[in-house]
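Need residues for this backbone.
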């Protein structure tokens, strides 16, 4: 039984690390896309202050990331016990 719990914990830890890695890759990609969109937007003749919209988008991404990490951690705890 101990080996099964240890093996399960090892597998869950690997999965958790992979998911975190994948999330980081998504965040990096989204940040790059956001950067490109900001640059394109600032070149438009009607562009005003874009700071508020960017800050809002970043906060939304951060909230989604945090919620996903919390969900994964809860599932990891449930599977580990």
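Answer:
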């Amino acid at each position: 039984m101990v080996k099964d719990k240890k093996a399960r914990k090892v597998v869950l830890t690997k999965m958790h690390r992979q998911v975190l890695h994948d999330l980081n890759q998504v965040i990096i990609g989204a940040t790059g896309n956001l950067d490109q969109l900001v640059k394109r937007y600032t070149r438009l003749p009607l562009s005003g202050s874009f700071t508020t919209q960017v800050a809002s988008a970043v906060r939304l991404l951060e909230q989604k990331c945090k919620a996903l990490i919390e969900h994964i951690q809860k599932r990891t705890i449930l599977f580990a016990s």
